[in-house]
Design brief:
Layout lengths: L5 E13 L11 E4 L2 E6 L1 H9 L2 H7 L4 E3 L2 H12 L5 H11 L30 E3 L1 H11 L6 H12 L9 H19 L1 H8 L3 H6 L15 E3 L2 E3 L7 E7 L2 H5 L7 E19 H7 L12 H20 L6 H4 L7 E7 L23 H19 L4 E6 L5 E2 L2 E2 L4 H9 L5
Antiparallel strand pairs: 1-9, 1-10, 2-3, 3-7, 4-5, 6-9, 7-9, 8-9, 10-11, 12-13
Helix pairs in contact: 3-4, 4-5, 5-8, 6-7, 11-12, 12-15
Length: 420
């Protein structure tokens, strides 16, 4: 069985004029790399649109529900689980799931303003990823956990010894003791919880961090870089647009009903991601610990996820400003490697690509630079990666091997664990 643990994805997509990712000033996101300005698409944006895509739902299942609106989510989950558990228990488990969560949720692609005070003295929760199956398993674990008579007596004794104005009611102290015992029971059965988390694959891929409550921390299996153009894009174009008021025109008046500007540009983007196969197997509950031996079946499942991840990174485009720009472009060139470590090829473009003097354009020089850089890095560091490429245009090679002619062929190569 192949022992290489990382699947490295390198994707080049040439986007027609567009504005796929904006900052808080409604300007295109950019980054300075190699001393030159590049247009950027954030990793958060890429992961969001991948998670929301039809292909993801069809091939990888329903993603988690990401929300801080606990009051709105509880009725949904209670409705789903009411035939299995008492509704009050479901609500209690969901409340304890995020109880005392740290001020910022650290899942890779969550947005949060933390537990800041809100009007009325309530606190806002961080945006958390919720999986129905995880709540189901948690309810099953904690349902039969109760305090013994001795544990109850100790809790009452603790309540009686409290001093000061912040004393808690006896019932509250007993409730805290109960939930500490239930949290311990969850940790003792964390393998069951991890298996349940695996039902929402986006959590297994992106990960999340929890500091308390019943939420289990998950180290993300998929690292995603911000996509940047392989060449300089400066200055960017600005579209001056207007909206016509038909009734005003009919009345014989001139001028627009609305006018504004929007920054846009075109470019060849380099996307990079690395998938840790062993971490993914752990997150899906396929192996009990990170050091446990993987099985042919567990590795095959991880590779199946990897091939779908490749398809998503080669085909999914952020939906921002697509109505006026329609930059629905697919990958032009892809390199996939099975490797012993994550390796980015972004430095192939630290020196910006210049347009092709004969034919024009940045795409062909970018493809040639990326393929050449992969060859040089592998030779220089004896990486011994297993790699194949896919290219829309014929005649392109990776090392001594011609690029595959369809993305499906490259997906199958991954599923076969790098075997031709």
């Amino acid at each position: 069985m192949n022992t290489r643990n990382f699947v490295n994805l390198h994707v080049l997509i040439s986007h027609s004029p567009s504005c796929l990712n904006r900052d808080d000033m409604n300007m295109q996101k950019t980054a300075v790399f190699g001393g030159r300005t590049r247009v950027r698409i954030s990793s958060q944006s890429l992961k969001y649109w991948i998670r929301k895509s039809d292909y993801y739902k069809a091939q990888l299942g329903k993603p988690s529900v990401r929300t801080r609106n606990l009051e709105g989510l509880i009725p949904q989950f209670v409705s789903e689980l009411k035939d299995e558990f008492d509704p009050d228990l479901i609500a209690q488990v969901m409340e304890m799931f995020v109880r005392n969560t740290a001020a910022e949720d650290e899942s890779d692609d969550a947005e949060s303003d933390g537990e800041t005070g809100a009007e009325g003295g309530t606190k806002k929760l961080a945006v958390a990823p919720w999986a129905l199956e995880e709540i189901r398993v948690l309810c099953a674990i904690v349902r039969d956990v109760v305090l013994t008579a001795d544990e109850t007596a100790k809790a009452k004794e603790k309540a009686g010894k409290q001093k000061g104005k912040n004393k808690k009611a006896e019932a509250e102290v007993i409730e805290e003791a109960l939930w500490k015992k239930r949290a311990k029971a969850v940790q003792e059965k964390v393998f069951l919880v991890r298996t349940a988390i695996g039902s929402a694959l986006d959590i297994a891929l992106a990960g999340r961090m929890a500091t308390s409550g019943l939420m289990t921390s998950v180290d993300g299996a998929l690292a995603v870089a911000h996509a940047i153009t392989t060449h300089t894009v400066e200055p960017q174009d600005v579209d001056w647009f207007t909206a016509v008021d038909d009734l005003t025109q009919d009345a014989g008046e001139t001028g627009a009903g609305h006018l504004n500007t929007q920054q846009f540009s075109a470019g060849v983007f380099y996307r990079y991601a690395s998938l840790n196969l062993r971490q993914l197997q752990l997150n899906l509950g396929l192996i009990p610990t990170i050091d446990a031996p993987e099985t042919p079946e567990s590795r095959a499942r991880a590779l199946d996820v990897a091939r779908h991840t490749l398809h998503l990174f080669a085909t999914v485009v952020p939906n921002a400003k697509q109505q006026p720009y329609a930059a629905h472009n697919l990958a032009d060139f892809v390199i996939v490697s099975l490797a012993d470590q994550p390796v980015s090829l972004a430095n192939a473009f630290e020196r910006p690509i210049k347009d092709d003097k004969k034919l024009g354009g940045f795409l062909q020089p970018s493809i040639e630079r990326l393929a050449d850089y992969w060859t040089r890095v592998n030779r220089a560091y004896s990486l011994n990666e297993q790699a194949r490429a896919f290219a829309l245009e014929g005649g392109i090679q990776l090392g001594e091997r011609p690029a595959l002619e369809s993305l499906a062929d490259l997906e199958q190569w991954i599923a076969r664990d790098g075997q031709d």
